[in-house]
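Cast an eye over this sequence plus tokens and walk me through the fold:

***
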Amino acid sequence: MSRRRDELKALLGGAPPAAETPAEADASAARPRAHASSGAVKAMGLALGNLRAEAEDARALREQVARGERVVEIDPNRIEPAFVADRLSQPDRSDEAFDALCRSIENGGQEVPVLLRPHPDAERAQAGWYQTAYGHRRVAAARALGIKVRAVVRPLSDVELVVAQGKENSERRDLSFIERALFAEALLQRGFERATVQSALSLHKAEMTRLLQVADAVPDAIARAIGPAPRAGRTRWMLLAEQLRTAGARDKAEREIATERFAKATSDERFVLMLERLTRRAKTASRTAEALSEPSGRVVASFKPDGKRSVIEFKGEGAFAAFVASEIPALYAAFKAREGED
């Protein structure tokens, strides 16, 4: 118990939880422990659950919260996420980190409790519902495993919740650049002061500005389709944001999202696919003059981009120039077909 108290105190910055009385320890030992089960077994357990036992657990939990903070076990199906999401991870879309978290909890238990508050809606709070301040992935993992989640319940205002939510993620340093950007923008849109947002994410003014520039330039739907892309980093997200400033680029991005290769890729791979799709033509347009030479080194023709037009010069090869001219209609048709794919 001593180690757990120290861990909780360090995590929450508050007083350690009160020690259990002998009666509480006996009651805790007498209650059956939740365990991982298959989806079918979980469904049956939920359908046949003892309503009286659930009511008693909810009443006991409210009494524990009233006495002071302590680690308790709560049904994750009675926990709602925070009113502002801080993650783009989707467990059903190649989220290897989430799968690893599930395996870790299944094999070794949940080491760090999540922080909850009683649901801000009084009726839902009375019915035993809670809202997550931080620990959304641990709540989701417990739900997937069919077990209860270890949590600390603390009354929190909206400002206290987002500050706790942001600081916990900043200290763990596992929010990606785009997740932090969208989180900051969402908080501002909900009316939080800029100083509160900077405090929540531990940001300097310049960092805050860069996050908001990217959040403003990258459409929300595109960012969420790509996902957290933890390896992309600030520089590449800023490059992608620059590429997405035109309607044509955004249309191209939506066509990429609809491809099968995009759907099957991991988040980092989706980011690379998107960036390559949007910069493909820019790379072609930026080429310098290129020469077509024979093996002997004699230049036959040269190609040079020149603003909105490109120039092909033929070096004394009239027959070759005529041949190229005759092939232009077919080449143009092939180009339009490829452009349609893009």
In short: The radius of gyration is 29 Å. The first strand starts at residue 71 and ends at 74. Residues 174 and 338 are 39 Å apart (CA to CA). Residues 1-61, 63-68, 282-286 have pLDDT under 50 and may be disordered.
